[in-house]
């Protein structure tokens, strides 16, 4: 059983997804493949009616960023259970299909629970090295390896031997490509730093529609700040934080042609960092919820 105010284990999250899908008319649970160590990766789709535009959330691709899966399962739970009682939820599900990959790096996530709390990467073996894992946010196949990543398997930003060498990134890629023309937003949910980051990440170059992404990001950050007064910075990824190629946001935009691609860096700004106390799960969820409602509403009105 998951506890929405705890950082839950992988199996509990998958059981929650199964139970949620079983008891929710608007939900569908989809298998997207297995991880390197054989864990079943799932995407839950939540939406009323058929064939609507989609919004995709990739959570927990970095193992140690526990707040990301925690916020995502809270969002899933609210969307899946409040359609009849909450007018916001009804609007959200009548307008869009919401797709969540709540734990996008299952092996790494479990390893942070059992062995090394601050593990970041996948857990695959690297040929010629005793160091394990690839940074799954340097492994995507758009301008892969061009900047801000390492060819050293022992590095925390190891790009991997090839783009999509990792089963986890390839599974998500294949799922998204099957429905890319319907997906309006791809959000990669991380911690920490409190940012809405806009492509490109591989270089300080700007996409031609950057202003559209900035505007929608500002809508999200403004709504978010209203809830608990927490400030998120909205801006260009590489300009704000330096260039990092092979991240999923760039692939979503450049490789899958999804207009609204973001990397969301959740709480905090570094006081606790990755070790965010569990009593911040609920307020982080509440403010992110407000941002998602506002952004979906903005998309619905303007795009
Ligand atoms: O480095 C990453 O993959 C992300 N940050 S994290 O601390 N969650 O690992 C995104 C960084 C985004 N961007 C740039 N450095 N451009
Ligand atoms: Zn991250």
Automatic annotation (TrEMBL):
GO cellular component assignments: extracellular space
Named cofactor requirement(s): Zn(2+)
Presence of the UniProt keyword Zinc in the record: yes
GO biological process: proteolysis
Active-site residue list: 265
Keyword line: Carboxypeptidase, Disulfide bond, Hydrolase, Metal-binding, Metalloprotease, Protease, Signal, Zinc
Family: Belongs to the peptidase M14 family.
Protein name: DgyrCDS12992
Whole sequence portion shown: 109 to 411 of 413
């Amino acid at each position: 059983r998951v506890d929405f105010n705890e950082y839950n284990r992988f199996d509990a999250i998958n059981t929650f997804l199964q139970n949620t899908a079983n008891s929710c008319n608007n939900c569908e649970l989809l298998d997207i493949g297995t991880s390197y160590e054989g864990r079943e990766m799932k995407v839950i789709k939540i939406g009323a009616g058929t064939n609507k535009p989609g919004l995709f959330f990739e959570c927990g691709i970095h193992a140690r960023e526990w707040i990301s899966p925690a916020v995502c399962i809270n969002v899933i739970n609210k969307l899946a259970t409040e359609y009849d009682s909450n007018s916001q939820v009804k609007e959200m599900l009548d307008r869009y299909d919401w797709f969540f990959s709540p734990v996008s790096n299952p092996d790494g996530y479990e390893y942070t629970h059992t062995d090394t709390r601050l593990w970041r990467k996948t857990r695959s073996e690297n040929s010629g090295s005793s160091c394990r894992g690839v940074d799954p946010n340097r492994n995507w196949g758009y301008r892969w390896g061009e900047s801000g990543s390492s060819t050293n398997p022992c590095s925390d930003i190891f790009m991997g031997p090839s783009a999509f060498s990792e089963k986890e990134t390839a599974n998500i890629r294949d799922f998204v490509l099957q429905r890319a023309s319907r997906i309006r937003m791809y959000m990669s949910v991380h911690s920490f730093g409190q940012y809405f980051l806009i492509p490109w990440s591989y270089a300080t170059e700007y996409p031609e529609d950057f202003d559209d992404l900035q505007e929608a990001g500002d809508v999200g950050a403004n709504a978010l700040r209203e809830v608990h007064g927490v400030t998120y910075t909205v801006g260009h990824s590489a300009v704000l934080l330096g260039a990092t190629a092979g991240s999923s946001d760039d692939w979503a935009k450049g490789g899958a042609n999804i207009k609204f691609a973001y990397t969301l860096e959740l709480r905090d700004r570094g006081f606790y960092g990755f070790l965010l106390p569990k009593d911040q799960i609920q307020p982080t969820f509440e403010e992110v919820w407000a941002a998602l409602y506002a952004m979906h509403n903005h998309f619905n009105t303007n795009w």
